[in-house]
Amino acid sequence: MTNNLIQWPRAKYWDKAWNPIIGCKPCSTACENCYAAAMMRRFGAADFSPRTTTRVNPPRSGVVFCGNMTDLFGEWLEPFDSMEFFSRLFHFTRDGSPRPNEATYLFLTKRVSRMADALCNYTDVPNALFGFTAENQEWYDRRFAEFRKIPTKFRGWLSAEPLLGPIDLGLNHVYPPEAAPFQWVVVGCESGSGRRPCPLEWVESVVEQCLDAGVRVFVKQICLPDGRFVNTLLDFPKHLRIRQVPWAKKGETKK
Ligand code: SF4
Predict the structure, then answer these.
(1) Does the CB atom of residue 34 touch ligand 1 within 6 A?
(2) Residues 184, 196: Cα–Cα separation, whole Å
(3) Run of H or E residues at 244
(4) Which atom of ligand 1 sits closest to the CA of residue 28?
(5) Which residues of the chain have pLDDT under 70?
(6) How far, in whole angstroms, is CA 190 from its chain's centroid?
(7) Residue range of the domain that includes 129
(8) Of 11, 32, 67, 255, whose CA is between 20 and 30 Å from 25?
(9) Reading across the β-sheet that carries 229-230, which strands appear in turn?
(10) What is the dihedral sign for C-alpha 207, 211, 212, 214?
(11) Is residue 249 situated within a structural domain?
């Protein structure tokens, strides 16, 4: 590994969350210990079925995670069946009034074909990074096959969290780096008391593949060989202290 540039100090890579919908339905292995469902249970909600909220408009500054308590591209709600919902959603990522929109919007889904359908009506969605989650090789292969149908300009990132198996990203023949299928990868083990195993080698492999291909990588959290869960960089082995992000901080240009 040649590059251990550190750009982001915290394990949480976003500043604000925006949830026009909360609640979701499990759709794959990664959902078994769903963070959002656990969070809602903690706050006393008995029901995790998807529903709209009053948070219609997203924040206009910072790094905004759109839908960390749901999958915004789920198939269950009526608004998702019309393009109106996405028109409204993407309007905010474009809109420059009354002041410039300084936010970076992160969209993430496990329903990649739904994301592809939503994006096919757009030529550009500025300030937004679209990505998908993959927890192991099987789900990577299945979702990546759909992700490749999305125009290159929209293909932003991959979240390999929770990492539940080794993943060959297939980046080894990608050249130049701009041709990579995504520009950024977040990788991390599962969190919580019931977390499933994630040997360090799986994380190391993802990091190595990204660095070799010139794709930015962000190591969020890991499980050490002694079983400890850690998300503070100083607790990581030196070669995994890497938290690159694809957006520029204020006053800084993208590298
Ligand atoms: S897709 Fe995400 S929010 Fe929905 S159940 Fe799975 S882990 Fe939870």
Answers:
(1) yes
(2) 24
(3) none
(4) 6
(5) 1-7, 77-83, 95-100, 174-175, 177-178, 248-255
(6) 14
(7) 16-240
(8) 11
(9) 16-18, 63-66, 104-109, 128-133, 155-160, 184-188, 216-223, 229-230
(10) positive
(11) no
Residue 1 lies in a domain: no
Q: Determine whether the shortest distance from the Cβ of 110 to ligand 1 is under 6 A.
A: yes
Chain centroid to Cα 66, Å, comes to 10
Q: Encode pLDDT of 39-51 as tens digits.
A: 999 989 889 999 8
Q: Is residue 226 part of a domain?
A: yes
What's this model's pTM, rounded to 2 decimal places? 0.91
Q: In the prediction, which pLDDT does 121 show? A: 80
Q: What is the CATH number of the domain that holds 48?
A: 3.20.20
Phi-psi region of 162 (alpha: psi -120 to 50; beta: other; left: phi over 0): beta
Residue 15, Cβ density class (10 Å: 0-12 exposed, 13-18 middle, ≥19 buried): middle
- Residue 90 inside a domain? The answer is yes
Using only C-alpha atoms, the chain has a radius of gyration, in whole angstroms, of: 18
Ligand 1 proximity of 89 Cβ (cutoff 6 Å)? no
Distance CA 223, CA 201 (A): 11
Distance CA(147)–CA(86), nearest Å, equals 18
Domain total in the chain: 1
Q: Which residues pair with 188 in a beta bridge?
A: 221
Residue-level pLDDT at 169: 96
User: Which CA distances in Å does 142 have to 130, 138, 145?
Assistant: 17, 6, 5
